Amino acid sequence: MTSVSKFLFGCEEPNDRLRYAEHVHRKPVVVWNVTPACNLACAHCYAASSSGKDLMEGVLDNAQARSVIDDLAAWKVPVLLFSGGEPFCRPDIRDLAEYAKSKGLRVTFSTNGTLIDDDTADWLADLGTGYVGISIDGTESVHDEFRRRKGAYAASLAAIRRLVSRNVKVGLRVTMTRFNVSAIPDIFDLMRDENVPRICLYHLVYTGRGSEIAATDLSAAERRNALDVIIAETEKSFAMGNPVEVLTVDNHCDGPYIYMKRPSERVSKLLQLNGGNSSGAGIACISWDGTVYPDQFWRNHPVGNVKERPFSEIWGNPPPGSLLEQLRRKKEFVKGRCRSCRWLDVCGGNFRARGEAVTGDIWGEDPACYL
Fold first, then answer.
1. What is the pLDDT of residues 323-349, one digit of tens each?
2. How many CB atoms neighbour CB 249 within 10 A?
3. Under 8 Å between Cβ of 123 and 107
4. How far is CA 7 from CA 133, 192, 260, 298, 317, in A?
């Protein structure tokens, strides 16, 4: 993640200790895809989830899931993010979240929001949920087309309002493509109008159904323009007295680009502290069947399974020469123009899943780099 608001205005946010502290937390944020099922079938879904997925076939059962939580809590991971599919499609999601919270984990959710009714919003507030990210991909018509369900936008907006009214921290999650990039100012307006304190703008990753719409991804010029708009909208929010948290995700050349637009010693130091892509190190994924991946998008490279070995051992003790071990010194392996790029130390070679999708080589250069 690249914190646009921190780079521009130096804002301090709770998760900055994971990205920009002098002594960065060495345990990963764990994204847990707790179910393959979803009530939507979004065009860009990296997990290719849908209502046609069998809800429990091969999925970790409640006892196995609780054992995973015990391990994550004992190992002291900083954040547990329940995702899917749609996490609220899993019948025992409340039990698992409450159990994780009781073990001292910071519990967060990534959701389309359409299943968050008043009762669920009350429960999230009572739980003390750290954060709920809800997907909004443009204006109503664009969002509904993207999410392949008429009325999805209205349901997600209703969930946002329910959570804001209950003082649950909520953020917007946007995946940028040519379908919706022109709507970025509208989405910022929505954020300001609804008093939402956070927005994450994702670059498209070509995995799952995202690979089917790769042709709609932004060109280098379109990416630069999108970042210019994001910078301008962030500055507009702060000028209006609305200091929102603005992050871009899955394209680590965003940081150097912002530095070149707004150079300062402070931003240079933040880039060095962050180090760019953290797949296999600062971010981890556990899938519904217990498979562990270097991140939630790179689902063709399993590194273990929690049914066979605890996550803490899989992640904490990777064998020499294994993918996890190599990812933690990936600057030695990346190819193409990344090898000689002056930003390699602060970008980390960008996103491996996207590089592999285009070049067929896990160390191939990421086509989304626009520097």
1. 999 999 999 999 999 999 999 999 999
2. 18
3. no
4. 22, 20, 11, 28, 34
The residue among 175, 254, 261, 277 whose CA lies nearest residue 2 is: 254
Put the strands of the sheet holding 245-249 in their side by side order: 2-3, 245-249, 198-203, 170-176, 131-135, 107-111, 80-83, 29-33, 283-286, 291-293, 304-305
Please say whether the beta carbons of 289 and 60 come within 8 A: yes
Which of 134, 150, 130, 131 has its CA nearest to residue 142? 150
Residue 132: beta bridge partners?
109, 170
What type of residue is 95?
A: D
How far apart (Å, rounded) are the C-alpha atoms in residues 108 and 123?
Answer: 13
**Does an H or E element contain 3, and which?**
strand 2-3
> 113-141: per-residue pLDDT in tens?
999 999 999 999 999 999 999 999 999 99
The tokens for 82 are 């329940």
What pLDDT score does 51 carry?
Answer: 67
- 5 closest CA partner among 160, 198, 182: 198
Q: Please give the C-alpha separations between residue 57 and each of 5, 52, 96, in angstroms, as whole numbers.
A: 42, 12, 18
Closest CA to 90 of 52, 119, 61, 117: 61
- Could you give the percent of the chain with pLDDT greater than 70? 96
Q: What residues contact 342, with CB distance under 8 A and at least 6 apart? A: none
Mean pLDDT of 135-152: 92
H or E, element range at 99:
helix 93-102
